[in-house]
């Protein structure tokens, strides 16, 4: 029990270290790219930046104060554990925002478009790390987490939608040009956030409907991928058949197509993205002893024809 307790504490410490890293990256991005270019970010931080431009009040302190009502909502709707994480994340983020304020004087680029793009990218990386660890930097992150929990919507998309309101405020105070660049920044932020949350372990899920399912499955297994048969039935014909289901890397999709077309050119195939594939057995096997797929296609086709003609 003692070692288990230490292991839990170690994992928790690593998790909070990861959240702190994400907060630090986002804070540096805001102070390096956005503030010098007079751009905004989303949520409570965006409101704090507007007030900073108008009054000079510290962004980090404002961010924490504006989050207090949202923390109350998080306590009621998302529970004690999540709220503690939000308080920690918001506190770390707010502190880093003010500690990295000196970066305003060291802007690496003067082009507002580059500032918007790179600010959005690095913000997305920072926020994505925090979200991936089930943390939060407060603001609209809390609203996004609530909607994701109850409606299973994309967190990045939800935050982007709410942040359109921030863009309108920016247009009112600072003109259309900064607001439009802010929109670019927010879009990049949302896209990268979603990518980091989903992970870079993206795969493709392939469904294949064919009368030659067994032969197709054998061909796919020659590539080194496991195959699952799903039992299906045609709604019109009432005919039962196996549906081949396989998850592959993006680089293997063309091989799957090649195998399927060689065995059954009329097969019905669906390919859809499958983010963050987890589970045993999904690692690329070694190529030792495997025949290259280009040379296997002809053999598979001939094997099928021999079976068809009784050879």
Please describe what this structure looks like.
By secondary structure, this protein is of the alpha+beta class. The chain has a 4-stranded antiparallel β-sheet, with helices on one face.
Secondary structural class: alpha+beta
Order of H and E elements: HHHHHHHHEHEEHEH
Per DSSP, the total helix count is 11
State mean pLDDT (0 to 100 scale): 80
Q: Any idea what the shape is?
A: elongated
Radius of gyration: 26 Å
Distance between the termini: 65 Å
In the sheet with the most strands, the strands line up as: 2-3-1-4
Uncertain stretches: 283-298, 303-311
Fraction of helical residues: 55-70%
Please state roughly what percent of the residues sit in beta strands, choosing from under 5%, 5-15%, 15-25%, 25-35%, 35-45% or over 45%: 5-15%
Major sheet: size, sense and barrel closure? 4 strands, antiparallel
Beta strand count? 4
List keywords for this structure.
alpha+beta
């Amino acid at each position: 029990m003692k070692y288990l307790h230490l292991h839990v504490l170690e994992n928790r410490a690593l998790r909070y270290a990861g959240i702190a890293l994400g907060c630090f990256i986002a804070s540096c991005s805001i102070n390096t790219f956005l503030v010098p270019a007079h751009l905004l970010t989303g949520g409570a931080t965006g409101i704090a930046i507007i007030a900073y431009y108008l009054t000079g009040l510290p962004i980090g302190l404002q961010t924490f104060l504006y989050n207090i009502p949202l923390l109350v909502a998080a306590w009621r709707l998302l529970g004690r554990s999540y709220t503690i994480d939000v308080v920690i994340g918001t506190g770390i983020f707010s502190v880093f925002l003010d500690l990295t304020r000196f970066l305003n004087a060291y802007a690496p680029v003067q082009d507002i478009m580059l500032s918007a793009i790179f600010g959005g990218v690095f913000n997305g990386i920072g926020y994505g790390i925090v979200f991936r660890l089930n943390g939060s930097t407060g603001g609209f992150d809390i609203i996004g987490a609530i909607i994701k929990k109850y409606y299973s919507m994309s967190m990045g998309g939800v935050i982007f939608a709410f942040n359109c309101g921030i863009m309108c405020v920016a247009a009112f105070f600072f003109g259309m040009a900064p607001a439009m660049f802010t929109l670019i920044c927010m879009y990049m932020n949302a896209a990268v956030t979603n990518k980091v949350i989903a992970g870079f372990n993206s795969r493709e899920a392939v469904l294949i409907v064919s009368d030659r399912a067994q032969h197709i499955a054998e061909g796919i297994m020659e590539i080194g991928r496991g195959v699952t048969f799903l039992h299906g039935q045609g709604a019109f014909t009432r005919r039962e058949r196996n549906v081949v289901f396989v998850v592959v890397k993006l680089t293997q999709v063309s091989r799957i197509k090649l195998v399927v077309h060689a065995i059954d050119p009329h097969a019905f195939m669906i390919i859809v993205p499958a983010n963050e594939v987890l589970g045993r057995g999904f690692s690329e096997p070694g190529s030792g002893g495997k025949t290259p797929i280009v040379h296997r296609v002809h053999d598979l086709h001939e094997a099928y024809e021999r079976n068809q003609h009784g050879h």
